[in-house]
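Note to self: the last two entries modelled the partners one at a time, which told us nothing about the interface. This time every component goes in together.
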Amino acid sequence: MKTRSQRMALSATGIFVALLFFFPTYWMLTTALKKPGDILSTEYDLIPFSATLDNFTTAITKPGFTTFLTNSLIVTLGAVACALVAGLLAAVPLARMRFSGRRGFVLLVLVAQLAPLEALFVPMYLIMRDANLLDTLPSLLLVYMAFTLPFTIWTLRGFVKGIPIELEEAAMVDGCGRWGVFRRVTLPLLGPGLVATSVFGFVTAWNEFLYALVFMRDQSKQTLPVWLSSFRTAFGTDWGGIMAASVIYALPALVFFMLVQRKLVAGTTAGAVKG
Amino acid sequence: MSAPTVNPLLPAEAPPRAARPQRRFTAQRATPYLMLAPAVVILVALLGWPALQVLGISFRRLDLGELIRGEIVWVGFDNYREVLSDPEFWIIGLRTVLFTGACVVATIGLGLGIAVLMRHLDAPVRVALQIALVLAWATPIIATTTVFQWIFDQQYGILNKTLVALGFDGFAGYSWFTSGVSTLSVIGLLILWQAVPFIAFTLYAGLLGASKDLYEAASIDGATPLQAFRAVSWPALRPLLTMVTFLSVLWDFKVFTQIWALKQGGPDGESTTLPVLLYLKGISGSHFGVASAVAVLMLLILVGVTWRYMRLLVRSQETEL
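The predicted structure of the combined assembly is written out below.
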């Protein structure tokens, strides 16, 4: 049994580690809320005294901000939607039907999920160049869709398998066809799985940097992360503005992530093997 | 944290049905293939084809001139010879391996420590820690990178200010990005900060998976905490540790975003790793053939390092198919 002092020491360590991990987020938020004049000061200002939204106004009114935000939203949401449709179509037969070539396909998906796709940007760049898709949003949308598809198939297959087959059989007995079973039984039960999977896809695509940097040579076609990374050209040393922009960029990912964090841990560890 | 479970007693497919007319039968047999078709097309066209291409291009001379003229010039192993005979490649390769190793060891160590800590914490502190970890995990990479740049800022960064306030006056105006080692350390911290939460949560889930009864039995039998850890926690953790190590190697080896966004491989190329070299050769330099050779070599190194686990993973999935 733990003594009182042991518990205190444990709690203190826990709080210290929590503060450490919390600090960058805290610092991003408080800097974004500081008065622009207070940021570049030599005062030791760990705790802010005044708050203003000026920095957010600065960030939003930067030339191109709305364009970059829209670009990011289009490629991310587009990729997630396409991957979800193709992934669901593939997950159902992989989980429920028996046909030759199934094992091979599942292995293909597994390998694709592990493959370091970052190493493929040279041929991807050349392919997009040949297709006249450089500097267009579809090029990124296609690549992000391909990036998130293996994981989408893999996880959705698990979720489909998790639905008791008796439910589907019962619906068949009651006169539903294959499509009816899917629409009335499988799809509604898959709801949480679809949400979790699409959040993961969203975070992956929302984060992606390398391909956006390679494909979008035209500045007006950039996505948010690429624009943010070159903030010195846009913001100079206006740290308040850049932190406000970072907060805006981080917000959707944070919100979605919080919603499904528990499921993600379970999903990614489902394939662990003894070694 | 329940994983999607599969009941092994249930058949994987619907039970066989009575014979049907031939036409219906073929339509039904085509169904799975039709449903798989979109995914197959996407995976083959956007992953399989580029993977073949990178291999093909690595045996061609493909600079801007050849690209514009649309020429195909096969040069055998020339690109590989060029890359491998460049001492710079070996320095960068070694740096990448060491950097990956350091990041993996640090993330796994910290992640394991935090997982064990979480198991022993009282609920309010544990929840606070978990919230902090999720925030760190979910913040987009580039947002975190900009915050780190601000924290480590030479003149107004809070880190230098704190160090000065603590009495280390030498850190007033100290630049953290003047040497490769120092820059890579900051990048390592950045990676750690984002990667540890996933590892900690995964291992924590593993620890919770070991049943409370086992711990009770161990303590009744008079086991010390260390013995209990070895006999109860460790068997539950081992497969997960292998998996997160494997994933960390895979992820840390190919890190590009943080390195590029922070100092673009600088100062003076001292924080350049293989993925950055690949970008410099391929996109900045337009030497697509040489860059592809670098990419193939990178893939070979990765496969070499992770081969044993890959085989294990594939085999374990096969039995489950």
